[in-house]
Specification:
Distance between the termini: 11 Å
Helix content: 40-55%
Oligomer: single chain
Number of helices: 8
Radius of gyration: 16 Å
Shape: globular
CATH topology of the largest domain: Rossmann fold
Strand order of the largest sheet: 3-2-1-4-5-6
Number of strands: 6
Largest sheet: 6 strands, parallel
Length: 188
């Protein structure tokens, strides 16, 4: 039976460490992936929130073009694309749609829809597209989507999302584990 999957892009389909080389290069830091223990990055780069936001906005296209795909994502997503509908819902701004589509094509990933909402609040998009499961890396997003939409949310484990989880938000280490969890879920 065909299901509709809602899938975040950054830190989920792309490697959660994607941004670190760009930060280190721009700000002369030596941040390691394990150091990023919170989602807010200003304490790691020692600039104001406004300065970081300005830098990020100016560099988003370059960052997104240069982000590596998460290990195992292509294998699992390619399998799902043949059986289910894949709706990618991202906090990226709508002006980045072409860059995003180009990245998907370069990675050999197919999609049914890409929605760039320009905000971390993905609940409205998840409801609008009636997704039946969601894949995320941001802790508060995962919890809110689960609680508001009453759907399972797969949370990809990172150093920045270690807060406790309610039932219905499932922590996985990688795409292989996500695929295994989904296989069991689909059997129910």
């Amino acid at each position: 039976m065909k299901k509709r999957f809602g899938i975040d892009i950054d830190g989920t389909v792309t490697s959660p460490a994607s941004l670190i080389p760009f930060l280190n290069d721009a700000f002369g830091t030596n941040i390691k992936y394990e150091d990023i223990t919170q989602y807010e990055l200003t304490p790691f780069v020692n600039v104001t929130e406004d300065e970081l936001a300005k830098w990020f906005e100016e560099n988003e296209p370059r960052i997104y073009k240069g982000s590596p795909i998460a290990q195992g994502a292509k294998t699992v997503l390619s399998k799902w694309a043949k059986q289910h509908e894949l709706f990618f819902i991202s906090a990226r701004g709508p002006q980045l749609l072409e860059v995003t589509k180009e990245w998907f094509q370069e990675q050999g990933l197919t999609f049914d829809h890409i929605e760039l909402i320009g905000s971390h609040d993905k609940i409205a998009a998840a409801k609008k597209y009636q997704v039946e499961i969601f894949f995320e890396d941001k802790h508060d997003n995962a919890v809110m989507i689960h609680e508001e939409c009453r759907i399972p949310v797969i949370l990809f484990d990172t150093p920045y999302n270690q807060d406790p989880l309610p039932d219905g938000v499932i922590r996985v280490n990688n795409w292989l584990e996500a695929g295994q969890w989904v296989d069991q879920w689909l059997k129910k």
